[in-house]
Structures are given as structure tokens and as C-alpha cells.
Amino acid sequence: MTSGTNQIQSSVCGIDDDKIHLCNYVSLFVNLKSLEAVSMLHIGIPCTSVLPPPPPPRAPNFRRFIWASSIQRKGSYKGPKPGRDWIADWVSKNDDAVRSLPIYVGGASLLAILFNRAISGIAPVADASSSQSRADLLTLGLAVTNVLTGLVWLSIRPKSIIPVEPQGVERQVIYSHLPESVVSEIHWAWESLSTVTCCRSLVIVYDFQCIAQIGVAAKSLNDNEPITVDAAKLMQGSLCQGVLKSGAQSYLANLSLYPGRTELPFLPSNTQAVILQPLGDRGIAILGGDTIRGFTTSDQAWISYMGEKLDATLAKYSSDMPLVVQECFASPGSDVS
User: CA–CA separation, 22 vs 4, rounded Å?
Assistant: First the structure.
């Protein structure tokens, strides 16, 4: 029946026998695969389809701690090491010999010129037409230049900057009428400045009144008593007026070079450096140091912040200060602690 049907289809559709046989083979192959799959399901054979493997289990995410130690074992550091300038070290240790070296070189050059002139058989009188004479004149000028350079090096030496001992008397005066918090803050400021910086004298003036004078003060010539601060005269001086108008810190790195040092008679006579720190627009703090250029850049910045802190503290009690000071001037024996 199947062959009859194929003949009918071939006669109807016009398909040749080879193509019909090929279609039969394909349909037979599909039927066999279907029967194989059905039998596998009936007998319980698992399906062997290829699936991607499951991802591996993820490790727990624990925090990692790295312990850093400043103690290194010997030979563990492999980075670059700071170099050492041996020439600079040798020159610093033999300063006198290095300064005298040009004199020795120049003197030896002069002797060599005379010796060469003596054994060369040339007349001792310089002859401009002789090349040897011209060479001797040139070397003679270089030798004299070396000798003069050595003399200059020996005469000019850099001045060593060392701290000096302030010439005066110790003084610590703070108005006892101030609140305890203000007094403790002034003490804190003085202890910090005297410990960390080269400050040896501290004067605080606020609202034309001297609030504190701590450290070494100049002594009078008559009775060796400390010189007190004339706050009204001080605030009218050019130094304080300039600082208050600008609102910026003024640093006198070498006080002996400034003519305005006469406005600070209460500081020791050998004060080396001074910082004038404004306290807002109503006061000023004066710090005297024992070393030329002794206050570093970081010291100046820190003193500026400290001045702002003192200004904020003193401003809280500024309304009571004039009355307190008047009482202090009326009874000098009870104005200081």
C-alpha cells in the first residue's frame, strides 16, 4: 500500500524515485530515534544531556588585616638609602684649613713661576715680545687672585646663631580679678610657648590694659626692679598701631636692626627676636625670643591660632575689664597675684 501511495505521489507531484528513497530513509531515522528516547524513559535511564557545570562555591569574604610595624629587621629594608655628602662633611670639619687653602695654592704658584723663570734662561726683565713672559704674567695674576681670595675667606666668617641668656628678672603678673578660666588659659599659653619655642617673655595687652606679663622682664637701673608695661603708651606706638591696622602678625627676626625696639623697654635688653600678634582689633600679644630668627614658620602659624583663641576668651570678659583695672590702679597692692 505504501508503494502504491508513493507511486501515486510520484505520478502526481513529479518527484523521481531517488528523492523518494532519501525521504524514506530520513523518516525511518527519525522514527528510530523517537522509539529509543521512549524506551529510555520507560526503563529509567537518566538523561545524559550536557549541562554547564555549577559554579564553584564562593569563599567567605573575611576582612583582611595587615599589621604594620615600625620595627624593621636588620637588612629587611630594600629601598633607597639617603646619600651622604662626604665632601661637605669634610669641609665643615676642616673649615679653617679650607679657608686657608687658596693662600697656599697662590703662594706655591708664585714660587713655581719664579723657579721656572730662573731655570728657563730668560732674562729677568719682562719682555712683551716673548711668549714666556706673557704666560708668566698671566699665571702671576692668577696666583695673586688666589692669595687675595684666601685672605677674604679668612676675614669674612658667618656668625653662629646661638641662644642667649636674657638679661633681666623673672616676673609673673596676672590680674587676680580675671576669671579662673582666663588665668588658666594664659598659664597654658605661656607654658606651651616657653617649652616649644624660643619665647622667654610674654606680654598681653587688651583694651589698653596690661593683662599679663610673664617671663623675663627688663630691670630698672636704679633698684633692679622689673620694668612694668605702660599699656597706654605701648598701644599708641608705631609698632602696635601698624599691627592693629593690618590685623596681621609682625615678626621682627632680628630686633637689634629695628629702630622701633625702643617702644619695648619692658623686654630684656638682649632680646633677639620679637613677634607682635594682634588679638582681634582690641589687643596685642608680644613674645620675646632668645635666638635670632628663632621662631620658625610653624611657630608663627601656631602663635596666630593661639592669638585667636586668647582673643575669643578675653572678649567674653571685656565688659568687666575697665572696672577691674580702675580698682587695680586705685589699690596697687591688690592688683596682682
Answer: 17
User: Which pLDDT belongs to residue 30?
Assistant: 57
Contact by Cβ (8 Å): 241, 296? no
Domain that includes residue 136, residue range? 89-155
Separation between Cα atoms, residue 257 and residue 24, nearest integer Å: 121
- Per residue in 124-137, pLDDT (tens digit) is 665 656 777 788 88
Interaxial angle between packed helices 86-93 and 95-119, expressed in degrees from 0 to 180 and rounded to the nearest 10:
90
Backbone CA torsion sign across 26, 27, 32, 34: positive
The total of other beta-carbon atoms located within 10 Å of residue 151's CB is 15
Listing DSSP states for 25-67 in one string gives: HHHHHHHHHHHHHHHHHHHTPPP----PPPPPPPPP-PPP---
90 vs 98: CA distance, rounded Å: 9
- Alpha helix positions (H), 164-270: 180-196, 231-235, 238-246
Query: Could you give the number of structural domains in the chain?
Result: 2
SS3 per residue for 133-179: HHHHHHHHHHHHHHHHHHHHHHHCCCCCCCCCCCCCEEEEEEECCCC
pLDDT at 168 over 70: yes
Tell me what pLDDT residue 132 has: 77
Domain membership of residue 70 (yes or no) is no
Alpha-carbon distances of 172 from 90, 203, 217, 236, rounded to whole Å: 48, 10, 9, 24
* Residue that is last in its domain, among 155, 181, 203: 155
Residue 274 sits at φ, ψ, to 5 deg, of: -140, 140
Model pTM? Answer: 0.55
3-state secondary structure at position 200: strand
pLDDT for 26 equals 57
Sign of the C-alpha dihedral computed for residues 174, 176, 181 and 182 taken in this order: negative
pLDDT tens column, 201-252: 999 999 888 999 999 999 888 778 889 899 989 999 999 999 999 999 999 9
